[in-house]
Amino acid sequence: MPTKSKPARKSTRHRTPELLFGDLWEFDPAPELADPKLKQSYSLYINGQFVAPRSRKYFDSINPSTEKQLARIPAAGKADIDAAFSAAQTGYNKYWAKLPGKDRGKYLYRIARLLQDRSREFAVAESLDGGKPIKESRDFDLPLAAAHFFYYAGWADKLEYALPGVSAKPYGVVGQIIPWNFPLLMLAWKIAPALATGNCVVIKPAETTSITALKFAQIIQEADLPPGVVNIVSGAGATGQLIVNHPAAKKIAFTGSTEVGKAILRATAGSGKGLTLELGGKAANVVFDDAPIDQAVEGVINGIFFNQGHVCCAGSRLLVQESIAKVFVRKLKTRIASLRVGDPLDKNTDIGAINSKEQLDKIEQLVASGVEEGAELFQSSCSLPSQGWFYRPSLFLGVTQSHRIAREEIFGPVLSILTFRTISEAIEKANNTAYGLSAGVWTDKGSKILKMSTALQAGVIWANTYNKFDPASPFGGYKESGFGREGGKQGLCDYLKIVP
Ligand code: NAD
After folding, report:
1. Which residues span the domain enclosing 261?
2. Of 188, 117, 114, the residue nearest 151 (C-alpha)
């Protein structure tokens, strides 16, 4: 529905596609009105209780679309982390280790259902705190988080089928650290398999997005989990280090940047602790000349602009076959011009706010490096809100493999486009990266899909689609994207130790 009287229709022959869409596709605001039930100030969740931090320190969580404070978040210090691990150890010895798998499963089902019941409330909280469009938190993050709890609830009493003929036991107490791009979903990926396999957890959300994790503590309490089984502690990197180095942590499960992942690898080396690292990526999305072009354009758009490009497996390098590059880029530009950037709580928003000022600065710096190194920048001419941290959907043409924008993870709505002539050139370019998390292939030929999926060095390869997830499907990387898997049977095995 137009907000203003319709402009007189002019000839569009010489107009750029972005002007065409900008004029005609004006939507009325469609705000999501559900109450996120936020508190002014949050508590740590330790031993089944909401407690003030012994550190007495707090920091602000900021709404990235308004730059205003949303809530006060506790910064857990050493005494808090000690208390959390002590509670987890007691919870394990006293309750969780003694509970049969079918009873652990019942708790997980209960958590899944409670999360479903409060899904709209959590979706709004996630969008407010993190900046992601409500249609993504509502239709992707929340349903998938609940699905992970349902899925692993089903495994809890069937672990002998995950590792047939092998005797395995849980680690006991595990420390878990998660990033800011999918706060509640990453929490579900961590907590659900850990509990299903009989572990107790101390988990820390990222400092810019702690709210849904601290709200999730209410669900743990409502589900009546025995005290100490799940402990949720907030704080920044220093709190993360306390978790990593805590002697009671028998395994560390980390999702975040490759840089911090390497520091954790060094810190845990020789300690005997189990470790899984889910790190960064620089995925190639490879489009062959026999691909269904319009479908591939949609897949490439989704691959890079989903969640503002704050996605570890984002298809941030488009490799397009030279013979179709011109038409493909023209269609991409037209599609980019139709993306709506703005209020994360508006149901029509395609691209919400950048999670933090720090991340916006990083994106701007990397884009500036692309221009400086000679790549050609195209940006949507859409209007941006006057307040908040936003970035225009962007693409770079004329990118070479040595450009920083082709090598480094931008973690923003910026696509680097390279071309190739032959399948072997595509494979070589796609694999020419330090990372190995994901990749996409677009072609009409099944044989090409099979060849590419064996040749590409990536943990997940999508064919004629992108960013598809299912709790039954394992996810994880190679090379500097880390090791270990989340999801599926493999995700269970990473929380179990083989007993000789
Ligand atoms: P980050 O590494 O800066 O922070 C991740 C978490 O680690 C946060 O909770 C942070 O507080 C904590 N942390 C920071 N320094 C620490 C330290 N020295 N010791 C222990 N903990 C510490 O990453 P980020 O910016 O929050 O997240 C973005 C990164 O996460 C990207 O690189 C992205 O690709 C990656 N990621 C990977 C996956 C995956 O499954 N592979 C999924 C999501 C995000």
Report:
1. 44-279+481-498
2. 188
